[in-house]
TrEMBL record:
Alpha-L-rhamnosidase C-terminal domain segment(s): 727-792
Protein name: Alpha-L-rhamnosidase C-terminal domain-containing protein
Signal peptide: 1-25
Keyword Iron: no
Keyword annotations: Signal
One Pfam family of this chain: Bac_rhamnosid6H
């Protein structure tokens, strides 16, 4: 489709003889808003219960739910002098809480459930534990108590019977921390041998962990528990209203998950995973009625501890207690609950907070836009020491500030690569850019002496990523474009110069291309910690985009010579990319000039958006990316030579520039199809609504339970639909000048508003047969250009016009095109 560019004067059009398009009606976008209506969030249903639970609806505030559990019977013991050996065991250390501990096999028969045997061959099998009884003992079976950090899943239990080993029981697919294993027949023996061939893989590693092997079949009363559903991913501090409890201080344990699949006896991710904790939150319930707010801390010392804030959809509440919490909390008794709720801490995106909005004739696109906005809201929160990533991420310079965390559940740290997308979503929906600015300024304040800018506060601002300083540049330009805050650009201009004129030249090779491996960067990662080296198209295409953005910042702050110099360098890098990284046989850009031949979504998409690719190259490269299309999106690699699932893994983060490239090259319908496959998949699979960090083989969460199912870097559908489908974009800082260039494809109509420093800029368009109509209302004191389909008749403010540039100004304008 050809397009006609016209710059419009400030007038109001009333076009006679033209039927008003649906986009002229009053907005109805509010019905798509996803956020809770208040910060007091309640669960929507009870999904299941186990053990003795009466009136589970009391958890929803409908009466009182009661959980009861009798005290477990005493455990059987091995004869005094019983020993254990193992194929390997981990060396002693200080554990995750600084307390010395051992992991030798004797811990499995010492009667202490807080000690455990831990093998020393992570992910390698078999792991063998052999128990030698001090005297013959009659056994109908044994009971294995493992560890919530990962249980043996597949194992055999052998006994020494009549002088020979025989298999007495086989277990497969186990997920229970405590498992009674009955033998095929009772036996009197002096030795038992357990051979593990598979363990659960957890954030604490894939090890065989056995706390106790009890001689006999232990049948503890079942743990009373209930699983409640909040209906969507939420974030904040859980609260439980207790109507009372037995006098023995019964314990409750809370496990959280974004998906039912990964809701187990521990949370699918919790900060205590990284500090030697149990992976659940604990509380000792007093006998008097009380409301407990789950906050980070312990009841006494290291006993009865909780993590506080969580991002989750599902919550399992159990009447149980850790052995190490005795006597402060007991795993038996009675607990009465009259309601569960959540103090919602992220940005609360109710309809009245939206400063920008979007709506179209395609209901699915509308849903994805607001679902992505909600995903972003979940990460827009105050930076607090109690709930940021525990891996060295806390920073006093961010404490108490509004930031854009990468995820609701994890990592809960502001990463600049994520801000590259989540910042755009912020500007187009709610905020004035404060959350993004706080992140960008803080990272610049921690710039290294050689010009490198850290990606996040994690690891005390030392995580070595190769591409993220470039994202700081592009994100800074986006921030200034949308907000007009040139004071920020001036404040950090020297940081910009040092990044582009000191650090990146230090990793530029003789061909003028960035090459990972130079200047000690061989061990640097990128957005996915991919093991690529040398001249990578993605790094260089992003470099071109960063240089272009830097030129905009330079001009906005009165440094035209720097702008010219950086644009010249961008042109030189673009030429080198085309000369050395274009693969004519594949019709696409190579992922890297070294190693196996492959072609990446990231490099090819950014090369198109940066203007490196010619129209023919863009068409060919996009066809290459579409060739591997999956039901849940387009994969980020065209073969598996870099990572084993390259053709099966989908990132919304790297798909966003592909969507932009498709819209801008006249492939709007293919962009819409890609949106519907990718965002439609996430919307219709657990947990629903929110956008995932990544999608793996078969449409799974690509890193199992560790995956963040509400991740800000996956919200690119918001800028894709607003900037490209609706067509509204800033052309200079603060929308002083702007462009409205719709890419409608087969969508019948769209409308929306974009916040600017001078007020909302609204646009609506419709296409009905051969007639295309576009109406724009822009703030006074701004100017802009419209790009509309070419036709044999073009009416501007009711007057026939030719193509070209017309007077500039704010106000309301309408163009009709008869094609």
């Amino acid at each position: 489709m050809k397009w006609l560019r016209a710059v419009l004067p400030v007038t109001v059009l009333v076009a006679s003889g033209v039927v008003a398009a649906p986009a002229d009606a009053a907005p109805g976008w509010q019905k798509y808003v996803v956020a809770p209506t208040s910060r007091d969030v309640r669960p929507v249903k009870v999904l299941s219960t186990t053990g003795d639970v009466t009136n589970p609806d009391g958890l929803l505030g409908r009466g009182v739910a009661t959980l009861k559990r009798d005290a477990p019977p005493p455990k059987p013991a091995w004869p005094a002098g019983t020993t254990a050996t193992a194929s390997s065991f981990h060396a002693p250390n200080n554990g995750g809480n600084g307390q010395p501990r051992t992991y030798d096999p004797g811990n499995a028969v010492d009667g202490d459930t807080e000690t455990f045997w831990n093998d020393d061959t992570i992910g390698a099998y078999p792991d063998v534990l052999t128990i030698t009884s001090a005297a013959p003992i009659s056994l109908p079976g044994v009971t294995l108590l493992s560890n919530v950090d990962g249980v043996p899943q597949d194992y055999t239990v052998e006994v020494l019977d009549a002088g020979a080993w025989r298999v007495a029981a086989t277990v497969s697919g186990n997920t229970a921390v405590q498992r009674a294993v009955a033998f095929d027949r009772p036996v009197t023996t002096t030795q038992v041998r357990i051979t593990v061939t598979k363990d659960q893989n957890t954030p604490s590693g894939e090890f065989s962990r056995v706390a106790e092997v009890w001689p006999g079949l232990v049948a503890d009363p079942p743990v009373p528990s209930a699983v409640i559903d909040f209906g969507k991913v939420v974030a904040g501090y859980p609260k439980i209203a207790f109507a009372g409890a037995s006098a023995n201080r019964p314990g409750v344990r809370l496990a959280f998950s974004e998906t039912l699949q990964y809701l187990g006896e521990r949370s699918d991710f919790t900060r205590s995973d990284f500090s030697g904790g149990p992976g659940t939150d604990q509380y000792a319930v007093p006998s008097a009625p009380t409301v407990w707010r789950d906050t980070k801390g312990c009841l006494s010392g290291t006993q009865v501890c909780a993590d506080g804030l969580h991002g989750f959809r599902y919550l399992r509440i159990s009447l149980d207690a850790l052995a190490s919490d005795s006597p402060l909390a007991q795993p038996s008794g009675e607990v009465r609950i009259s309601g569960v709720s959540l103090d919602f801490t992220p940005f609360l995106g109710t309809p009245d907070t939206y400063r920008g909005w979007f709506e179209s004739s395609d209901d699915a696109l509308n849903q994805y836009w607001y679902a992505a906005s909600y995903t972003n809201e979940l990460g827009m929160d105050t930076f607090r020491e109690s709930d940021v990533d525990p891996r060295g991420a806390f920073s006093p310079s961010l404490d108490g500030k509004l930031v854009l965390h990468d995820g609701a559940k994890r990592d809960r740290d502001p990463y600049v690569g994520d801000v590259a997308v989540s910042g755009l979503t912020e500007y187009l929906t709610h905020q004035d850019g404060t959350a993004a600015k706080n992140v960008l300024a803080d990272l610049a304040d921690h710039q290294r002496a050689d010009g490198w800018i850290p990606p996040a506060s994690i690891n005390n601002y030392t995580l070595p990523l190769f591409d993220y300083p470039l994202w700081w540049v592009t994100s800074s330009w986006d921030y200034v474009l949308y907000t007009g805050d040139t004071a920020y650009a001036s404040s950090y201009y020297s940081h910009l110069v040092k990044t582009l004129d000191t650090w990146y030249p230090s990793v530029t090779d003789s061909r003028g291309l960035l090459a990972k491996g130079l200047n000690g960067t061989g061990g640097y990662g990128d957005y996915a910690f991919l093991p690529r080296t040398g001249e990578v198209t993605y790094y260089n295409a992003l470099y071109v985009r960063a240089l272009q953005g830097a030129a905009g910042l330079a001009r906005a702050t009165g440094h035209p010579a720097d702008a010219d110099r950086w644009l010249a360098r961008a042109s030189a890098v673009a030429a080198a990319v085309n000369q050395y990284l274009w693969d004519p046989a594949a019709g696409a850009y190579l992922d890297s000039a070294t190693g196996a031949v492959r072609h990446g979504q990231d490099g090819n998409s950014h090369a198109i958006v940066a203007g490196i690719a010619s129209p023919a190259q863009a068409t060919s490269a996009l066809a290459r990316l579409a060739a591997g299309a999956l039901p849940y999106g387009n994969p980020f690699m065209d073969n598996d030579t870099l990572v084993s699932d390259g053709t099966k893994r989908v990132y919304a983060f790297t798909s966003f520039p592909e969507l932009v490239a498709r819209f801008r090259t006249g492939q709007a319908d293919s962009a819409i199809d890609q949106i519907k496959r990718m965002y439609g998949w996430m919307a219709t699979h657990d947990p629903g609504i929110t956008a995932w960090e990544g999608i793996g083989e078969g449409g799974s969460h690509y890193e199992q339970g560790y995956t963040s199912a509400a991740h800000g870097w996956s919200t690119g559908v918001v800028p894709a639909l607003t900037n490209e489908l609706l067509g509204v974009s800033p052309a200079s800082p603060g929308f002083a000048t702007w462009t409205v260039a719709p890419h409608p494809g087969s969508v019948k109509w769209a409308r929306g508003a974009v916040p600017t420093p001078k007020g909302a800029l609204s646009a609506s368009w419709s296409q009905n047969g051969s007639v295309f109509s576009l109406t724009v209302s822009a703030p006074r004191g701004t100017s802009g250009s419209l790009v509309v389909p070419a036709g044999h008749l073009v009416l501007l403010d009711g007057h026939a016009v030719r193509g070209g540039t017309l007077a500039v100004g704010g106000g309301t304008h309408t163009v009709l095109v008869v094609r």
